[in-house]
From TrEMBL:
Annotated Pfam families: Nramp
An example molecular function term from Gene Ontology annotations: metal ion transmembrane transporter activity
Species name: Allomuricauda ruestringensis (strain DSM 13258 / CIP 107369 / LMG 19739 / B1) (Muricauda ruestringensis)
Protein name, per record: NRAMP family protein
Subcellular location: Membrane
Keyword Transmembrane: yes
Organism superkingdom: Bacteria
Annotated GO CC locations: membrane
Taxon lineage: Bacteria, Pseudomonadati, Bacteroidota, Flavobacteriia, Flavobacteriales
Recorded topology in the membrane: Multi-pass membrane protein
Keywords from the named record: Membrane, Transmembrane, Transmembrane helix
InterPro entries named in the record: NRAMP_fam (IPR001046)
Transmembrane segment boundaries: 34-57, 78-100, 106-133, 145-162, 182-209, 230-250, 279-304, 325-346, 352-372, 392-413
Length: 414
């Protein structure tokens, strides 16, 4: 147990990164609109996507190489595919996360004297300084505290809504259909981003690389996987917490929920305090803001690292990744690029996020197959390759992702 606690790092960072809008908005909305039955797609998505993230941890622990290097070993074509997906994420994901977090800060804590753009800029500066000065070790230590606070706040919130019981149904309320066009599109969004996009397996791999540098003794594969499993299970549990909160406080009320993440979070907090009492506002406000702040910090760190690693593999003679201030420079570049995106394209942010969603969903089956091919390649000794049970789950996940991507494209073309 002591060794496991020392090894905690990549798994917790994964949990922190994953519990963003997919949990705060989509999980809560799932419970609010469709009730307890949403437990099934949430757990199914977490189960079927598990191997693809686990392979990132497995490959890095065994080979001491990043998953991106594994793609490079398969052939430059695979590296270009991952580089393309990363490029789309670079110009969309961070900007969207920071805008949502800024809006949450303003709504939850009553900040009206400045705009969302100014708050976003302050968040960019503050988080960039934390990442540059503190580096990976600070990120790991601080996220242990943030995740602990988030888990406690959500646990208390969930217990309170369970004790209070569900809100009474409105007289005119009619249960919405799940398998009509609106319901299926919602399921696509929920499952596609639960727990997060498949390309994040490369992020977990790079956190694993950094974790290896901070440890005196290299962890065994068993220990590394146990650590990741802690974070992964925590991710699924928190998704269920958010779903329960939505189910107990909103389901059956007929309340029209906003598609805007900031407005929705404000709706959720106000409805929750109406249901439980104004004294409970603090818990849900802290949980909501901590969710998005930690996601911003981990995503900013991950995208900076993965961009550096991709550039290093594309231009191996430049020795980009090993330069002294490379990471700090990339953190600043990511902040600068996404600040420009917010400033110039704030009115079209929805379209940019839709582009990122499309690319992520369509490439998910291919990235899953690349992960399997990498972890079963010659770099990994036979005794450390995934067993038959995990392979079967992987193939099920690949079929699931493929059908999901095909149906998503079909829906867009209608």
């Amino acid at each position: 147990m002591k060794a496991l606690l020392k090894a905690l790092g990549p798994g917790l960072l994964f949990a922190s990164m994953a519990i963003g809008t997919s949990h705060l908005v989509l999980s809560t909305k799932a419970g609010a609109q469709y009730g307890w039955v949403m437990v099934i797609p949430i757990l199914l998505a977490n189960l079927l996507k598990y191997p693809f993230f686990e392979f990132g941890v497995r490959y890095t622990t065994v080979t001491e190489k990043s998953l991106i290097e594994g793609y490079t070993n398969l052939g430059k074509t695979y590296l270009y595919i991952y580089a393309f997906v990363t490029l789309i994420s670079t110009f969309t994901i961070l900007a969207a996360l920071y805008v949502v977090t800024a809006g949450l800060f303003m709504n939850l804590f009553g900040v009206t004297s400045v705009g969302a753009g100014t708050i976003s800029f302050c968040l960019f500066v503050f988080i960039s300084l934390l990442l540059i000065i503190g580096k990976y070790q600070f990120l790991e230590r601080s996220l242990k505290a943030v995740i602990s606070i988030l888990f406690i706040a959500l646990l208390i919130t969930t217990l309170m809504v369970l004790q209070k019981g569900p809100v009474p149904n409105a007289e005119s309320y009619q249960r919405p259909e799940i398998f009509n066009e609106v319901g299926i599109l919602f399921l696509i969004g929920l499952v596609g981003w639960m727990p997060t996009a498949v390309e994040a397996s490369g992020w977990v791999s790079l956190w694993g690389m950094e974790n290896l540098k901070t440890m005196k003794n290299k962890p065994t594969l068993k220990l590394a996987l146990q650590e990741f499993n802690v974070g992964y299970i925590l991710t699924a549990v928190l998704a269920l917490f958010f779903m329960i909160i939505g189910w107990m406080t909103l389901y059956g009320t007929g309340t029209k929920l906003s598609g805007n993440a900031v407005v929705f979070a404000d709706q959720l907090v106000n409805l929750f305090t109406t249901h439980i009492g104004s004294w409970a506002y603090f818990f849900i406000a802290v949980a909501a803001f901590a969710t998005m702040f930690s996601t911003c910090m981990t995503a900013h760190d991950a995208i900076s690292r993965v961009s550096l690693d991709v550039l290093q593999k594309l231009y191996p003679k430049k020795n980009i990744y090993d330069q002294k201030h490379a990471f700090a420079l990339m953190v600043i570049v990511m902040a600068w690029i996404n600040w420009i995106v917010i400033s110039l394209f704030s009115a079209n942010m929805g379209k940019l996020v839709a582009l990122a969603t499309f690319v992520s969903f369509v490439f998910a089956p291919l990235l899953g197959w690349m992960n399997l091919k990498t972890v079963t390649g010659k770099d990994v000794p036979d005794e450390h390759k995934p067993k038959m049970g995990l392979k079967v789950l992987t193939y099920c996940g690949m079929v699931f992702l493929s059908l999901f991507a095909l149906y998503y494209c079909w829906m867009l073309l209608l």
